[in-house]
């Protein structure tokens, strides 16, 4: 089943045409990477897939549902329930602790206090940062923050995970851990995972890889 289907998507900012007819389909259990140099439109594509941005033309389907005609409220609702976004710019809430940040999407989805605390601690544990649960974001290193953001993205057991350069702030070991976690999510839990990266040569445990160039996706040859 296709979790995400993007067809004929175009997007410009002013006179700059960023996406020019993007086609992409990500099925349950697939782990797909989109590579490309800085400024080619990777974040733009991910934000469109995450229903944060609306394309100028083309269709976006999430779990078979065309989202183009939906209002902001319905788009937020779908995002909260089905999409885990790991943004390139983190957006942790500075006045909440790491634990509270991870709990927040679950609180918004109506998960009970006790269950959300347990799940948040479990996720932080899987990412090796459970010891930082009571700290505030400003007290974390970039790599630690990255892992807290990933925990937050996974909180509501999303069907689609969108990770925007999730390894760019991490040392080699933590980067491998994060990528392996994403691979396992797709493999074992059937989550559809889409991640971006700048390095075209890096070997990733993905099932498909693309390069974004001239506004379109091209298969990456290994
Ligand atoms: N809100 C915006 N308004 C105007 N231009 C924008 C906006 N967002 C992105 N752009 C432009 O669109 C192009 C694509 O940006 P995008 O952030 O998608 O690139 P990227 O591939 O994610 O780059 P990086 O690897 O540096 O994160 C860039 O030229 C950027 O300057
Ligand atoms: Mg980007």
Describe this structure in words.
The mean pLDDT is 94. The strands form 2 sheets. This protein has a 6-stranded mixed β-sheet with strand order 6-7-8-3-9-10, with helices on both faces. A 4-stranded antiparallel β-sheet has the order 2-1-4-5, covered by helices on one side. The chain has helices at residues 42-49, 72-82, 98-108, 113-126, 142-154, 172-189, and strands at 2-13, 16-27, 31-35, 57-62, 65-66, 83-86, 160-163, 192-197, 208-213, 216-219. It is globular and about 45 Å long. It is built from 6 helices and 10 strands. The chain has a single domain, classed as P-loop containing nucleotide triphosphate hydrolases (Rossmann fold). With 222 residues, the chain is α/β, with parallel strands linked by helices. Adenosine-5'-triphosphate (ATP) binds at residues 13, 16, 18, 36, 38-44, 88, 198.
């Amino acid at each position: 089943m296709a979790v995400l289907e993007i067809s004929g998507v175009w997007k410009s900012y002013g006179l700059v045409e960023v996406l020019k007819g993007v086609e992409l389909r990500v099925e349950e259990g697939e782990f797909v990477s989109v590579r490309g140099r800085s400024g080619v439109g990777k974040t733009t594509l991910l934000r469109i897939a995450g229903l944060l941005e609306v394309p100028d033309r083309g269709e976006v389907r999430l779990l078979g549902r065309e989202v183009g005609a939906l209002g902001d409220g319905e788009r937020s609702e779908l995002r909260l329930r089905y999409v885990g976004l790991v943004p390139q710019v983190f957006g942790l809430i500075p006045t909440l602790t790491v634990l509270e940040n991870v709990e927040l999407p679950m609180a918004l989805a109506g998960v009970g206090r006790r269950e959300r605390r347990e799940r948040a601690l479990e996720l932080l544990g899987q990412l090796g940062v459970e010891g930082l649960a009571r700290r505030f974001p400003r007290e974390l290193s970039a790599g630690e923050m990255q892992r807290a953001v990933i925990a937050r993205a996974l909180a509501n057991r999303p069907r689609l995970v969108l990770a925007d350069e999730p390894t760019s702030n991490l040392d080699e070991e933590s980067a491998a851990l994060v990528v392996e976690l994403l691979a396992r999510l797709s493999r074992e839990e059937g989550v559809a995972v889409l991640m971006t990266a700048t390095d075209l040569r890096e070997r990733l445990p993905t099932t498909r890889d693309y390069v974004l160039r001239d506004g379109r996706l091209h298969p990456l040859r290994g």
